[in-house]
From TrEMBL:
Gene3D superfamilies: Winged helix-like DNA-binding domain superfamily/Winged helix DNA-binding domain. Coiled coil: none annotated. This is MGMT family protein. The lineage of its organism: Bacteria, Bacillati, Bacillota, Clostridia, Eubacteriales. It comes from Anaerotruncus massiliensis. It comes from the Bacteria. The keyword DNA repair applies. SUPFAM superfamilies: Methylated DNA-protein cysteine methyltransferase, C-terminal domain. One of its GO terms (molecular function) is methylated-DNA-[protein]-cysteine S-methyltransferase activity. The keyword DNA repair applies. One of its GO terms (biological process) is methylation. Pfam families: DNA_binding_1. CDD domains: ATase. InterPro entries: ATL_DNA_repair, MethylDNA_cys_MeTrfase_AS, MethylDNA_cys_MeTrfase_DNA-bd, MethylDNA_cys_MeTrfase_DNAb, WH-like_DNA-bd_sf. It catalyses: a 6-O-methyl-2'-deoxyguanosine in DNA + L-cysteinyl-[protein] = S-methyl-L-cysteinyl-[protein] + a 2'-deoxyguanosine in DNA; a 4-O-methyl-thymidine in DNA + L-cysteinyl-[protein] = a thymidine in DNA + S-methyl-L-cysteinyl-[protein].
């Protein structure tokens, strides 16, 4: 399977109302040093939205993409807020509250 396809498979698993970092997605794809490649794969996302919800991927600090590819810089904020994810005035998500760590994460996290 191509790396892009691995990225899309992982991103499809991020639950509504949660986010994952580029590095977390890379780790779950088996290549923890490939966070930039995750970003490039998401730029080529063939099905943004509910099918491959790339808006749920943020940087390791919880910062939104400065120029979200699919709809401009405010689109990612709007999509996350519509799912109940709070984004502060500086464009950050509280990773302690909203981070998703993978499909083996304990229920209720």
């Amino acid at each position: 399977m191509r790396f892009d396809e691995l990225v899309y498979a992982v991103v499809r698993q991020i639950p509504r109302g949660r986010v994952a970092s580029y590095g977390q997605v890379a780790l779950l794809c088996g290549n923890p040093r490939a966070s930039r490649a995750v970003g490039w794969a998401l730029r080529r996302n063939p099905a943004p939205g509910e099918e491959i919800p790339c808006h749920r991927v943020v940087n390791r600090e919880g910062r939104l993409a400065p120029a979200f590819v699919f709809g401009g810089p405010d689109a990612q904020r709007s999509l996350l807020e519509a799912e109940g994810v709070a984004v502060d005035d500086e464009g950050f998500v509280d990773m302690e509250r909203y981070a998703w760590y993978g499909p083996t994460e304990p229920p209720g996290r």
